Amino acid sequence: MAKWLLRGARVVDPANGRDGVFDLLIDDDRLARVGRDLPIEGAKVVDVPSGLVIVPGLIDMHVHLREPGQEHKETVATGTAAAVAGGFTAVACMPNTNPVNDNAGVTGYILAKAAEASLARVYPIGAVSRGQKGEQLADIAELKQAGCVALTDDGHPVSTAMLMRRALEYAGMFDLPIIEHCEEQTLKGDGVAHEGFHASALGLRGIPGECESIMASRDIALAELTRGLLHIAHMSARQTLDAVRYGKSRGARVTCEVTPHHFVLTDEMLGAPIAYDTNVKMNPPLRETADRDAMLAGLKDGSIDVIATDHAPHHADEKQVEFDRAPFGITGLETAVSLCFDRLVHAGVISLPRLVELLSVNPARILRIPGGSLAEGAPADITILAPDLSVTVDAKAMVSRSKNTPFDGWTLRGGVAATIVGGRVVYTNPAASLDI
Amino acid sequence: MKKDLLSIDDLSSDEIHLILDTSEAMREIGQRPIKKVPTLRGKTVVNLFYEPSTRTRTSFEIAEKRLSADTLNIAVASSSVLKGETLVDTALNIEAMQPDMIVLRHASSGAGHILSRICKSRIINAGDGMHEHPTQALLDAFTIREHKQRIEGLKVTIVGDLLHSRVLRSNVRLLTKLGAEVWVSGPPTLVPAGIERFGVRVSANIGEAVDGADVIMMLRIQQERMSGAFIPSLREYFNTFGMTKARVAKAKPDVIIMHPGPMNRGVEIASDVADGPYSVILEQVANGVAVRMAVLYLLAGGVEVD
What we know:
The complex is a heterodimer of chains A (436) and B (306). Chain A is of the alpha/beta class. Helix content of chain A is 30%, strand content 23%. Chain A is globular. The mean pLDDT of chain A is 97. Chain B has helices at residues 13-30, 55-66, 80-83, 87-96, 111-118, 134-148, 166-177, 206-210, 234-241, 245-248, 271-274, 281-299, and strands spanning 44-49, 70-75, 101-106, 122-128, 155-159, 181-185, 201-202, 215-218, 256-258. In chain B, the strands form two sheets. A five-stranded parallel β-sheet of chain B has the order 7-6-5-8-9. Chain B has a four-stranded parallel β-sheet with strand order 2-1-3-4, with helices on both faces. The chains are: A alpha/beta (436), B alpha/beta (306).
């Protein structure tokens, strides 16, 4: 369908100040017109049932697609299929692949795989340092030219203050943000869970929240020094949020993200319902109630810019081992929207327009990529949400190649009805009554 | 009783008392000229040990043999792990041979929980990482009860490397459940975060911690786990926390001194205390057999004792 009209639904588009019933005319891969009672003019009409909500395509700026090198966990094709099933029209993928995405060859490979899959848009993130070894800067101009939208040594922090300083300075020349996995590694030691009563009771080695906030404080100070762009990844500790607020108050160019699991779950999950469940092992770890509540407060008061999933697929064999030997990480693409609706919007923490900022507007702004807006002329990247759909998470039925989620069996209110990328419907949810 | 014994949390206080009462009967068997009853005849018990252990493995094996179980020892530390087999695969292979019980010792906390989820056999935790060592706490309780005729209301002071100790975690659970007043003492670098939520008193002042104690339980300084800078030196540790006669003197006159072994003499405990009149360390070892017989018997479903 070259021209079609989405009609009759609530449109939430905070970038353009819209929240109300509008029609959207899509012409090929672009949004041609947005307005009330648009003329049909030969377009195919899709009546969107009231109750569904049209928003700019969601963007997950923190996923691990695992390709190249770990295709048994995920591929660009399976990962982007999971993305669109979760309502994401675009993802930014982390460079800790094998080989590491520290050169144009790997970036090009990922983009070629993404074009082949032709589902969600894929924005590669390059390594800060060659091989993510923390010694020498990667060829950053080359990465930028090849299509990288940010830089990170995710999985690890940028090793030294000096390297971080140089990275912020050098990448600033290309307006590339440095995304930092904050972790003071000597303080982490061989910790596997949040340091506190629950880890102690189970005999698991602890990782205190300060492990994260110390590194965030270092980086925020360096962002201030260099005027570089810093983005704090997967924030988990209340002390880190305080550090970010302080940095913002001083005018540092710092932004931050939180994952759904860090605003939904706490370290109580270590012991129950399944003791030593390796699907609650992630880095940073699930923290205590005060931290979880701080994340909710940060989402509410605007200190937190982005919700990202840190989608980290692992093969079942890798997770079915002793807790201290299991890899860190859980999948997130297919549960994020439901968790956000259930725990944020329906729980009254934030409004739907604010959720759209967190999941679409702000990631687009921080990564300086198209999207986050339903302006006329913009790419037709659209997510249709079903705020009242009852969703029961079924790990076995997930599209991702890996099933490592702690949310299996949860029933949540809110889901995705359809995902449209560049004017093409790439996902429709059979459970949502939408004929598209 | 639950299917498995992974943690003291699996036991109600009634079940703990049942185990301790049953242990009395079991100890009597060990005093007979023929130390064997047919209670577990035809049952197969696998002792699956991923960590070297002399005392615990021997104690379980003697207990199993006294109950006429067919026992099998597998020391995995040097075989399958090096060949890359996972714990789950090893367990499934053992399970395929249909044992009735598996006694597991493993360096990772929660290893028994993995077995529990995949095995029909009953799992007895013989020590998992820093988590628990439930039969040790049961034999400690048995020993305390024998000397003090009760556990409720006693001041029990546990001193040493609290952080890495599974014996601590089992004892704290058991003793608080039975109403003891539990104090723990050690350098702050070796105190687990949030331990006071177990309902114990924490003090780095050894004098305060042992003052008026009915029971002093020493924990080993686990030198093999001391990769971080937890204490400056063993000498300084002994001077600050080592159990000496002078420190014992602050406790009740009829205090008993316990240690789960193996002891580091001159590190956490002075030899004249370890070998002194209030020491019950070897009684603990003796009681270990009876308590493990009781646990095996009760988990096997309470077949009649001959």
